[in-house]
Amino acid sequence: MNLKLHRLVLFLAALCSTPSLLQGVSATTTASPNCTTPTHFFDQLVDHENSSNRATFQQQYQVVAAHFKPGGPILYYQQAETSLFACMEWTILPEWAAELGALVITLEHRFFGLSYPSKDPDPVRQFQSLTLENVMLDAVNFIGHIKNTTEGTKESKVLVMGGSYGGFLTTVLKMNHPDIFYGALPFAAPLRSIGANNQNPQRYNWFKYLNQVYWDLSATAAGKMKHAFDVLGQRVQAANDTKSLARDFGLCSIPNTTAELQEVMGVINTVQYQIPQLGFVSPIGNPTGANVEKLVNQTLLLDDPVKVINASLNMWFPPSLYPCVPWGNDESVNPTLQLDSFNYLLCKYFPLSVNEIPNGTIYVPTSVQTESDPNTCMGLFNVTPPTQEFVESKYHITRDELVEAKRILFTYNEFDPTTAVGVDPLPLSQDRNASRGPTDRGACKEH
Ligand SMILES: *[C@@H]1O[C@H](CO)[C@@H](O)[C@H](O)[C@H]1NC(C)=O
Ligand SMILES: *[C@@H]1O[C@H](CO)[C@@H](O)[C@H](O)[C@H]1NC(C)=O
Ligand SMILES: *[C@@H]1O[C@H](CO)[C@@H](O)[C@H](O)[C@H]1NC(C)=O
Ligand SMILES: *[C@@H]1O[C@H](CO)[C@@H](O)[C@H](O)[C@H]1NC(C)=O
Ligand SMILES: *[C@@H]1O[C@H](CO)[C@@H](O)[C@H](O)[C@H]1NC(C)=O
Ligand SMILES: *[C@@H]1O[C@H](CO)[C@@H](O)[C@H](O)[C@H]1NC(C)=O
Ligand SMILES: *[C@@H]1O[C@H](CO)[C@@H](O)[C@H](O)[C@H]1NC(C)=O
Ligand SMILES: *[C@@H]1O[C@H](CO)[C@@H](O)[C@H](O)[C@H]1NC(C)=O
Ligand SMILES: CC(=O)N[C@H]1CO[C@H](CO)[C@@H](O)[C@@H]1O
């Protein structure tokens, strides 16, 4: 049994969710987790489903009421897997609120940041209440709390929004509580390729999509990348020059084991998708201004396969900020992702499978299992991850149900591989209330 977590892919999406909505804000704001509009806490039930358990925890939320006109809509932003609270005043939502006379509200996700129902040292006991049902009912109860405490909101229609994993939550909230959520705006929502089973037919789609992005931008550059990955793959396979591997790519330490070599490959693959995924203008999501078109331009000027890989690494980890390339520590690769809680929910109800790479792309093929690998989930959390079919039918996100659902606007970004594990295009309809998408007006795009 393999209990080691292979951190191959952090589909990062936390980064896509919050910062994607962020407007020009100085990079220094990332240093302070505190919002200029203060946040508050309220008592939330630890377990909404067990009526004999009345235990509560303090859940953090924020209300931006500056533009609210009584009866106007409520824009509910669903926070996701980050340890930092996303302050609504940094997002575009106040601008939308000014147009709509809306109230902007947001709730921290349970088990992230300061909203912690349990600190039990045993992860099985600690995360017992981290179920999708509880996460949804937190939002439902929070909306009730706001409607009870904010004058003029009783009749307000609620629109839910969020990105990436938050986009998945946005979709399931709308589909499972349509009486509470009038409309939904999921951006970059992964809804397919769920299920850690190796049979999942969509599990290669993430990297197939990236492969297509690079070939479409420039066949010459993609060809150079393919050659560079071939050479890198052979070196990793041979595992006989790890010292020079570390030197060539400026790694912070030398990988010594097969698992460590795989982690290095994982970081390189992750960088290779984060550049197109997060290449929008945002000082928080993309502080170093990574841009896939820039990368392709640089690659066109290079022939040395080491330098081709290095071009991506140096774009994502600029030597001016990173003396060396961090690997083997997710927190340094993605500092706002709260890994322990996220790994649990990946096993429990959101086992997205996007790490496998088929033959024939520019990348090194891999079938390495990752965070939601069934053995890992069983060993760490005593949890068997559900399949795509199970999640689709239990949480009402089958294609037929999404086509029937009203007022969901699915948005994706043309370079973002999440597009490949999102919804297929919905049919055109004359019904003005019909759900639509995907469109590429994703909030992950520069606006
Ligand atoms: C419900 O909560 C009560 C009180 O905390 C607890 O004793 C009981 O085991 C819980 N039931 C389930 C099914 O978790
Ligand atoms: C809101 O008020 C209603 C009526 O008083 C009450 O039943 C409900 O529990 C309240 N909800 C919240 C979340 O406070
Ligand atoms: C490593 O192994 C490969 C394949 O076996 C061989 O071609 C290469 O010369 C070796 N490199 C070093 C530095 O030993
Ligand atoms: C790759 O970039 C790193 C960091 O700038 C540098 O230390 C290393 O020498 C570069 N490798 C090559 C082969 O240019
Ligand atoms: C691998 O071994 C080298 C030399 O013994 C050591 O300096 C380095 O820290 C090791 N790498 C890791 C990740 O432990
Ligand atoms: C890439 O190069 C092309 C052709 O020279 C140029 O038009 C484009 O602006 C460049 N893009 C970026 C992002 O540097
Ligand atoms: C990739 O090719 C190898 C060697 O030909 C083969 O064993 C493997 O099954 C192929 N993988 C896929 C996903 O087709
Ligand atoms: C959209 O749905 C709402 C709620 O059911 C309804 O009141 C409204 O008339 C519908 N709008 C259109 C244009 O069909
Ligand atoms: C409510 C909140 O997020 N408070 C934080 C403000 O910033 C300090 C310093 O970073 C944190 O320790 C608090 O938790």
TrEMBL record:
Keywords: Glycoprotein, Hydrolase, Protease, Signal
Region annotation Disordered: where it falls in the sequence: 421-447
Biological process annotations from GO: proteolysis
Pfam assignment, any one: Peptidase_S28
GO terms, molecular function: dipeptidyl-peptidase activity; serine-type exopeptidase activity
Biased composition, class Basic and acidic residues, residue ranges: 438-447
Name the UniProt record assigns to this protein: Peptidase S9 prolyl oligopeptidase catalytic domain-containing protein
Organism of this sequence: Exophiala oligosperma
